[in-house]
Specification:
With 147 residues, the chain is α+β, with helices and mostly antiparallel strands. The chain has one domain (2-59, 75-141). The chain contains 3 helices and 5 strands, in the order H-E-E-E-H-E-E-H. It has helices spanning 2-14, 79-104, 123-141, and strands at residues 20-26, 32-35, 45-49, 110-112, 118-120. The strands form 2 sheets. It has a 3-stranded antiparallel sheet with strand order 2-1-3, with helices on one face. The protein has a two-stranded antiparallel ribbon with strand order 4-5. Helix 1 (2-14) crosses helix 2 (79-104) and helix 2 (79-104) runs antiparallel to helix 3 (123-141). The longest helix has 26 residues, at 79-104.
């Protein structure tokens, strides 16, 4: 349990400095799973999760077309791009829900500092992290993914 709590807080702490990864796969019964580690012996799709804004990661925007060149078809509207955004959104939801669960538990919640030492969150830090995780649940779990 402690490892799950540390992982949940690490995701929150690292969101501003690096992207986390979560894996999606469908088992032999057709059930979709999300995890921070890929399953052994089974193909899984890695989803980009988290950015400094908490929004799905995106590729850099292409340069604006000039007046002489026609605008290319929007790649963001392809079925594959829409499916990727939907999958990413579900992954963000899973992480947000895990963070809320960890932060609402009576167990101490730890965060690693720059030196790698685990420090327990203060009540104020925990309340702030919980409020942030709850906002992310509303954003990613209660609303449809952007199209």
């Amino acid at each position: 349990m402690r490892a799950a709590i540390v992982w949940a807080i690490a995701v929150l702490a690292c969101a501003a400095s690096a992207e986390a990864a979560i894996y999606k796969w469908v088992d032999e019964k057709g059930v979709t799973h999300y995890s921070e580690t890929p399953p052994e012996g089974q193909a899984a799709r890695q989803l980009s999760v988290g950015s400094s804004s908490g929004a799905p990661s995106t590729e850099p925007a292409p340069a604006a077309p000039t007046a002489a060149a026609p605008a290319p078809a929007a790649a963001a509207d392809t079925p594959e791009a829409i499916q990727k955004r939907t999958d990413d959104w579900k992954g963000f939801c899973v992480i947000a829900q895990r963070n809320v669960t960890a932060l609402e538990s009576p167990d101490p919640v730890f965060q690693k500092n720059k030196e790698g030492t685990e420090l327990a969150l203060t009540d104020e830090q925990r309340a702030s992290a919980l409020a942030d995780a709850q906002r992310r649940v509303k954003k990613y779990c209660d609303a449809p993914a952007p199209r």
